[in-house]
Amino acid sequence: MLFRVRTFNPCGFTLVEVMVALACMAIGFVALWSVHYASLRADIRTDRETGAIAAACSQLDFFRSLSFTDPVLNDGNYSASATGPPLPAAFTRSYSVLTDSALSWKKTVTVTVAWTERAGSFGGTKASVQRNVQMSSIIVNFN
Question: How far apart are CA 138 and CA 64, in angstroms?
Answer without folding.
Answer: 9
